[in-house]
Amino acid sequence: MGNPKQKITTFLMFEGKAEEAMNFYISLFENSEILTISRYGANEPGAEGTVLNATFSLNGQQFMCIDSSIKHEFSFTPAISLFVTCETEEEVDHLFEKLSEGGNVYMPLASYPFSEKFGWVGDKYGVTWQLTLENKN
Fold first, then answer.
1. CA angle, corner 117, sides to 115 and 122, nearest 5?
2. Which sign does the torsion angle of CA 106, 107, 113, 116 carry?
3. Could you tell me where the DSSP H helices lie in the chain?
4. 14-40 pLDDT per residue, tens
5. Per CATH, which fold does 82-133 belong to?
6. CB atoms within 10 A of CB 12
7. 126 C-beta neighbours (distance < 10 Å), count
8. Which DSSP helix (H) or strand (E) runs through 92?
9. Per-domain residue ranges for the chain?
10. Nearest to 44 by CA among 70, 73, 18
11. Are 55 and 44 a contacting pair, CB within 8 Å?
């Protein structure tokens, strides 16, 4: 299951949208799947059917997520983001369009001194993504 050598895994805490977010993310990246999922049952701390814990992979990179049963005063912040190096302009454009729907654009898709094509977005779940075109030089 996944990459057994991966020692450090990004862990995402949602409040009721973990499964929806996982399905959205795996629809955007090739070689992606939900690896394991456990849900809260009846009379357990979390809302029945929400994610107790899950692992999923995006293009072979493994992630973990949960739906917190506790309401927190914090959520995701743009200070940490998932940095995606795309092989083609089409890939950058597609990911930017899909990830920014219902979210926030922090840096519009454009050419910058550090990248021929780059965009920075927060998705509808609050997770932040930096998208860059691979430097072919």
1. 100
2. positive
3. 18-28, 89-100
4. 999 999 999 999 999 999 999 999 999
5. 3.30.720
6. 19
7. 17
8. helix 89-100
9. 10-67, 82-133
10. 70
11. no
pLDDT band per the 50, 70, 90 thresholds, residue 4: low
Domain range 10-67, CATH architecture: 2-Layer Sandwich (3.30)
| Number of residues written out for the chain | 137
CA 86/CA 71 separation, integer angstroms:
35
Given the structure tokens 């997520």, which residue do they identify? 65
State the Cα torsion 112-113-116-121 to the nearest 10°.
Answer: -40
What is the pLDDT confidence band of residue 79, given thresholds at 50, 70 and 90?
A: very high
Residue 65 host element (H or E): strand 61-67
Grouping H, G, I as helix, E, B as strand and the rest as coil, residue 10 is strand
What would the pLDDT profile of 59-68 be if each residue is shown by its tens digit? Answer: 999 999 999 9
Query: Tokens 């001194």 correspond to what residue?
Result: 113
Domains 10-67 and 82-133 share a fold: yes
pTM of the complete model: 0.91
Q: Give residue 44's Cα distance to chain centre.
A: 27
